[in-house]
Amino acid sequence: MNVLVINCGSSSLKYQLIEMTDEEVLAKGLVERIGLEGSVLTHRPKDMDKIIIEKDMKDHKEAVKLVLEALVDKNHGVIKSMDEITAVGHRVVHGGEKYSGSVLIDDVVMNVLKECSAIAPLHNPPNIIGINACRDLMPDVPMAAVFDTAFHQTMPDYSYMYALPYEYYEKFSIRKYGFHGTSHKYVSIKAAEMLNKPYNELKIITCHLGNGSSVAAVKNGKSVDTSMGFTPLEGLMMGTRSGDLDPAIIDYLASREGMTISEINNVLNKKSGFLGVSGVSSDSRDIENAAKEGNKRAQMAFSMFCYRVKKYIGAYAAAMGGVDTIVFTAGIGENSIPTREKICEDMEFLGITIDKEKNKIRGKKEDISAAGAKVRVLIIPTDEEMMIARETREIAACK
């Protein structure tokens, strides 16, 4: 069974074709600058050199068509025909309260995705465009929507509700949804496997740290809290997002700077975080390098980020009544040695102590806990595409 995983952005499309018998990635790639000048496909077939195809693509349908042509090409393809694609799994950011799991896509699902675009205006519309493009080109192939928000639908109401007038929840569904759910689910399951313990008996804190970052509390196999909220803006400081702040700052900026709500929202989402504090970059690697060279604002940005992750770990340990393991994943979590060390510093009171030598590793699965530490600290590379493929396989098998 071959599952094609599609992840659409506003002008990009990532994909993987995975043979599910042994979960082997046959090919993967990225289409960039869809609808713009200089659009290009980078195709990476298994055991072959990457192929770069420069071709104008005015929309996502043309991008998907080019991807399918690359997959069946006689020279750099990995399958003989499109008939070998059994199912397509789509990453969809927001499923609202409607879906607590992945679903087979039909017209009812598409209408829900459109409804959720009101609370995910940057993410759901390109997801919908990608789905429609695939449905047009592969009308008989079953397709699944795998939601970033679904894993967090197990949160109790006292965790996901905001202390606003209840009517706003009833009228507009304003509540915490959480994101990165596919990643948090994947690495928490992997953590249980690494510890050789039942998933439904563990208290796990997963730290998905990248340009977008979030922390999740996973108790007995279920998400009970997560740092991102109604939108991905809440929670940790990120590459360009502010994370948690006093909401009164919005009114203060509006009156002092004469800014509109839209302009302030742009500042909070695209000009804050690492970029805003450091003035150097939104990339944590640039922040670390600048901090080493003595840049005070970069040092402060690094310390702020680590401090806020540490606070969430402490809060979630309290919320779950303890913690068995901490998991670091995503770009920063998997690769930044000083970030992991700084976050775990002075956490011995919780049973968290890392081995600094074991911590000197990047991008590999590893237990970096000190000998005898009560809480295991793990590095687990995330694989959201594989999680999407697995969910799609289950849904397609039930069709």
From TrEMBL:
Keyword Transit peptide found: no
Catalytic activity: acetate + ATP = acetyl phosphate + ADP
Enzyme Commission code: 2.7.2.1
Cellular component GO terms held in the UniProt record: cytoplasm
Domain of life: Bacteria
Repressor in keyword set: no
One matching Pfam family: Acetate_kinase
Single annotated GO MF: magnesium ion binding
Xref: InterPro entries: Ac/propionate_kinase, Aliphatic_acid_kin_short-chain, Aliphatic_acid_kinase_CS, ATPase_NBD
Binding-site residues for Mg(2+), renumbered to this chain: 7, 384
Compartments (UniProt record): Cytoplasm
CDD domains, alphabetized: ASKHA_NBD_AcK_PK
Biological process according to GO: acetate metabolic process; acetyl-CoA biosynthetic process
Keywords: ATP-binding, Cytoplasm, Kinase, Magnesium, Metal-binding, Nucleotide-binding, Transferase
Family note: Belongs to the acetokinase family.
HAMAP family found in the cross-reference section: Acetate_kinase (MF_00020)
Protein name (database record): Acetate kinase
Organism: Oxobacter pfennigii
Taxonomy of the source species: Bacteria, Bacillati, Bacillota, Clostridia, Eubacteriales
Gene: ackA
